[in-house]
Design brief:
With 253 residues, the chain is mostly helical. The protein has 2 domains: 160 residues, no CATH class; 72 residues, no CATH class. It is built from 11 helices and 2 strands; from the N terminus they run αααααβαααααβα. Strands 1-2 form a two-stranded antiparallel sheet. The longest helix has 30 residues.
């Protein structure tokens, strides 16, 4: 059993490398895409490995690739959505939200989310915080809570007392004078560590915005990531096959 499994896994690994080279050509190189650490992904690897076959009439190469890898689900007719999502992520330099993708592609958020989950399970895509939107959401939270509860609440349960006093004072003064704008909030928070900004947003009643990005600065990085995840899964399969052979062998031989 172990020898048969090894041969099958060797073939799968070779085929996967060929198909990943096709995806690698789609990924635009970016110096900013991976600047922000990704959230820890607990998604179990699920990747279909299939050799390239004949294309259906009217179906392009990228749609066929997404279907072959299982990214389009069981229906080849839904390959166009997986294709469009893949192209958008491969050319983006920043994480993209589900809402932005659904509006851009004129598709329902549910369908886009289903496609995205398949790509995450395949190791091609990962979730990352939308750092560029953090100051905007804090600005909104500050104004909303100041109008509803006042400065004392902001300095107490609102969380401003947990950050540098100079920063919190400037924010409160801006709110009281009615002069606090997005630029002022972004400038004031520039010296506040990212983790503290995230906590502040939570105490203001907001949540860290997340988006999705292709999992690598370029095609090579994406290929290496998926290959590493696949090899880890294949090692476990090899180990199980060896142990099964050992358990099934006759101890007297």
């Amino acid at each position: 059993m172990a020898s048969s499994v090894s041969m099958s896994l060797a073939l799968a690994s070779t085929t996967l490398g060929i198909r990943l080279s096709e995806i690698s050509q789609l990924v635009g190189e970016s110096e900013t895409r991976m600047e922000t650490p990704a959230e820890e992904d607990q998604v179990q690897l699920s990747l279909k490995i299939s050799e390239a076959g004949p294309r259906e009439d009217g179906v392009d190469e990228i749609s066929t690739l997404t279907f072959d890898l299982g990214l389009a689900g069981d229906s080849s007719g839904s390959g166009h959505l997986a294709r469009d999502v893949m192209i958008e992520l491969c050319k983006s330099h920043q994480p993209i939200t589900l809402l932005a993708l659904s509006e851009r592609l004129s598709e329902s958020r549910g369908k886009v989310n289903t496609t995205m989950m398949r790509m995450r399970a395949a190791g091609l895509v990962e979730a990352a915080p939308m750092i560029q939107r953090l100051s905007q959401d804090i600005f909104g939270g500050l104004n909303r809570q100041y109008s509803a509860r006042g400065a004392d609440w902001l300095m107490g349960r609102g969380g401003l007392s947990r950050i540098d006093a100079t920063v919190s004072t400037s924010l409160i003064e801006g709110l009281e004078k009615g002069s606090l704008g997005m630029d002022e909030v972004e400038s004031a928070l520039s010296t506040v560590p990212l983790d503290n900004q995230r906590i502040l947003l939570n105490t203001l009643g907001g949540r860290m915005p997340f988006g999705f990005r292709i999992a690598g600065r370029d095609g090579k990085a994406v290929t290496e990531r998926v290959s590493r995840l696949a090899e880890r899964a294949m090692r476990r399969i090899r180990t199980v096959s060896v142990r099964l052979d050992e358990s099934l062998s006759d101890p007297s031989e």
